[in-house]
Design goal:
CATH superfamily: Divalent-metal-dependent TIM barrel enzymes
Radius of gyration: 17 Å
Strand order of the largest sheet: 1-2-3-4-5-6-7-10
Number of strands: 12
Strand content: 15-25%
Helix content: 25-40%
Number of domains: 1
CATH class: Alpha Beta
Shape: globular
Oligomer: single chain
Length: 282
């Protein structure tokens, strides 16, 4: 009997809505996991209160209330900035407070590669001490192009040299930043050092990139979903409906949140598609 996929929802799809509402919908639709997404710029400007003990307690209360589990925290920001090590220490503490050991984050600009490597080497002992793992994610826009293709990520891990830094793969990100690449095959190349995966589909409207329900875009997820289930690698649907990317990969966030009816529709259709894929594996 094949393994069942560990599937959750990244809260970026609920950008602008209350977490209580988001968790309730995720639970009612039959998902078991949630990934809280505090990604700078993609879900608005973040402030330190989100990483406070009070907010950690609120998240734990909501997890209990809606009978959800969490395995990962989304916490993307520029990992090459001078404050990155201190910022990551704060996020490690918050992750521990909500019971999470995996922290997902995109990297930095290629031009800041040396600072990125230095910061990752400095944060590695803190991760090891906390029993956490920072999962670097292939970027989806030019602000995070230090790691865009599989070989670049593999080289970065070799330079950092710590088991506390691994991969969170995202094929949908690769479509906008490196559109000529075979995104699914590139992400599958990362599987030996992947601890988590984002599932994001993409369609093009003119020259711009938008995010539909899984299975309704250009990516064939069947081989990757099968591998994730077989290797017991958890994943979340990261479908940032409030955001799209321009032809040059620049992210554009709408001024208004997406309606809850549309969010429910997208999550329901995505789950139906992935459940259908899994039924084919039997």
């Amino acid at each position: 009997m094949p393994n069942s996929l560990k599937l959750g929802v990244n809260t970026s799809i609920f950008d602008g809505h209350d977490m209580d509402v988001a968790f309730g919908i995720i639970s009612r639709l039959g998902y078991e996991y949630v990934e809280v997404a505090y990604n700078q710029g993609y879900v608005g400007d973040l402030d330190d209160s989100l990483f406070s003990p009070a907010n950690a307690q609120r998240i734990r209360t909501l997890l209990d209330k809606h009978q959800l589990k969490t395995l990962a925290l989304g916490c993307t920001f520029n990992l090459a900035r001078p404050e990155a090590v201190a910022y990551l220490q704060t996020r490690i503490g918050f992750a521990q407070a909500i019971g999470v050991k995996l922290l997902n984050a995109c990297t930095a600009k290629r031009e800041d590669y040396a600072a990125l490597v230095s910061n990752l080497r400095q944060i590695a002992p803190y991760l090891e001490h906390a029993g956490c793992c920072l999962l670097i994610e292939n970027g989806g826009d030019h602000n995070y192009d230090a790691f865009a293709l599989a070989a670049e990520g593999e080289e970065l891990l070799r330079e950092v040299g710590s088991a506390a830094v691994a991969f969170n793969g995202d094929a949908g990100n690769m479509v906008s930043l490196r559109p000529q690449a075979d995104a699914i095959q590139q992400i599958m190349q990362l599987l030996p050092q992947m601890r988590h995966c984002h599932i994001k589909d993409v369609y093009k409207q003119g020259a711009e990139f938008h995010f539909p329900p899984i299975g309704q875009g250009i990516l064939d997820y069947q081989p990757l979903i099968k591998s994730l289930a077989a290797q017991d690698i958890p994943c979340t649907l990261e479908i940032p409906l409030r955001m799209h990317r321009l032809a040059d990969s620049t992210p554009v966030r709408s001024d208004t949140p997406v309606g809850l009816e549309r969010i429910v529709e997208v999550l329901r259709e995505s789950k139906k598609y992935i459940d259908g894929l899994q039924s084919d594996f039997g």
